[in-house]
Amino acid sequence: MQAAENSLEKIKQSGKIVVATSPDYPPYEFQVNKHGENKIAGMDIDVAKQIAKDLHVKLVIKSMKFDSLLVAIETGKADMAIGGINPTSERRQSVDFSNIYYLGGQSFLINKSDSMKFPNQKALQGKLVGAQTGSLQYNLAKTHMANTTIKGMDKTPDLILALKIHKLEAVGVEKPVAKAYASNDNGLTIVPATYKLDKNQVGAAIAFKKNSYMLEDAVNKSIKKIKEGNKIDGYLKDAGKDMKVNTTNTSMWNYSDYFVKGVKYTIFISIVASVLGVLIGITLALMRFTKVKFFHALALCYVEFVRGTPLMVQVMFVYFGIGSIIDISALLAGIIAISLNSGAYVAEIIRGGIDSIDAGQTEAAASLGLPHYDTMRFVILPQAFKNIWPALGNEFISLVKESSIVSIIGVTDLIYQANLVRANTYRGIMPIFVVMVLYFVMTFILTRILNYYEMKMRSPE
């Protein structure tokens, strides 16, 4: 009970409540481009605002992938999570839930051209059906639709795109989401889901860290107030108005601010991670050449471990793992993870460059009385960098593209922004095309700059 009291007291003392959500799920939560300003809106956001108001604290929204929301709660990155989350028995093993504040029901989206072919859920048996990974819709389809191939994807816009290009025959979503897409896309229509479900597990609820009884009780009081005031209908109407704002002009130019912001973050992350990666790489490479066995073994183990694990896992570990001990932002966690990853690869590039230098250079420096440190600094490394410049250039270019992985923890890089545009405009392909062009422009410019300096280094004095 003491821990529960602390959870609520900590929020009141800080003056803010941090709410994790995935703003790509209209009408629950989504980004709206209104009067030149971008903000997160939707029914769930209005619910969160009411809770913050009742607690007399400031509402802070933290964006991330849907399947990371509960992890954020468990690791203390957020006080609560909201996002059309269904309080299933499996999820209750990891987190606690509030009372259900909305019961929307289940539906399938299909292409309107297939409406005669798939008039009901039964007709979808044995077909290719998509659902968001980790969602109730995914588990329901897996459990209740025998002999049906279920395809999971992280983002609802990806599922809708796959549906529209006929990679899927249906997509399972909640009824309000189905209505949102069908009303904004004439090519889609709705097929009702006929699952027989426990109403205590299929409605939308708010997630908390285990044993947060006092916070849960306070939130339930707000939910009771919302229900008694019939405010949900008003929240949905407001969400509908905001969605119309998004779809009034779905040109990519109208969303240029999103892409510009994404480019800025991508460039910033890439530059910082490149500098730190080189510094880490030089350190590790020199450790590999030291005669101290401990440092040599440490560098070797680090390089092998980092190269043997996926970057996505490393990013999540830094943010949720280390971040649960030391409070770090998603941006800083992304930079740290990418820098540490790049450092391992740069270390091997530099080690190869040092090995390529003729041993006579070291002997000549020794004969002149240069100590080992100065020999490495003034003789070996300058020649090594000249030899490995093309390889380092390739690493820098790869870093620009690989930095997109930070979008999984809510860093607003180019990929993250593109996903928001896709969710807001209901256009699946054009935002992807714009992002491809922007990445090409960035890497093309970087390639030209690297080639220029490579030619200068190779040209005679």
What's the gist of this structure?
The chain is α/β, with parallel strands linked by helices. The chain folds into 3 domains: 2-101 and 203-248, 3-Layer(aba) Sandwich (D-Maltodextrin-Binding Protein, domain 2), CATH 3.40.190; 106-200, Periplasmic binding protein-like II (D-Maltodextrin-Binding Protein, domain 2), CATH 3.40.190; 254-458, MetI-like fold (Orthogonal Bundle). Helices cover 58% and strands 14% of the residues.
List keywords for this structure.
alpha/beta, five-stranded mixed beta sheet, 461 residues, 13 strands, D-Maltodextrin-Binding Protein, domain 2, MetI-like fold, 18 helices
Topology of this protein?
Elements: H1 2-14, E1 16-21, E2 24-25, E3 29-34, E4 37-41, H2 43-55, E5 58-63, H3 69-74, E6 80-85, H4 89-92, E7 96-97, E8 106-111, E9 128-132, H5 136-144, E10 149-153, H6 156-164, E11 170-174, H7 175-184, E12 188-192, H8 199-202, E13 205-208, H9 213-228, H10 231-248, H11 256-289, H12 293-307, H13 311-321, H14 330-355, H15 359-367, H16 372-402, H17 414-425, H18 430-458
Parallel strand pairs: 1-5, 1-6, 9-10, 9-11
Antiparallel strand pairs: 2-3, 3-4, 6-13, 7-13, 8-11, 8-12
Question: How would you portray this structure in words?
Answer:
It is a single chain. The protein has 461 residues and is α/β, with parallel strands linked by helices. The chain has 18 helices and 13 strands. It has 3 domains: 2-101 and 203-248, Periplasmic binding protein-like II (D-Maltodextrin-Binding Protein, domain 2, 3-Layer(aba) Sandwich); 106-200, Periplasmic binding protein-like II (D-Maltodextrin-Binding Protein, domain 2, 3-Layer(aba) Sandwich); 254-458, MetI-like (MetI-like fold, Orthogonal Bundle). The strands form 3 sheets. A 5-stranded mixed sheet has the order 5-1-6-13-7. A 5-stranded mixed sheet has the order 10-9-11-8-12, with helices on both faces. The radius of gyration is 26 Å and the shape is elongated. It is found in: Cell membrane. Keywords: Amino-acid transport, Cell membrane, Membrane, Transmembrane, Transmembrane helix, Transport. InterPro entries: AA_ABC_transptr_permease_3TM (IPR010065), ArtM/GltK/GlnP/TcyL/YhdX-like (IPR043429), MetI-like (IPR000515), MetI-like_sf (IPR035906), Solute-binding_3/MltF_N (IPR001638).
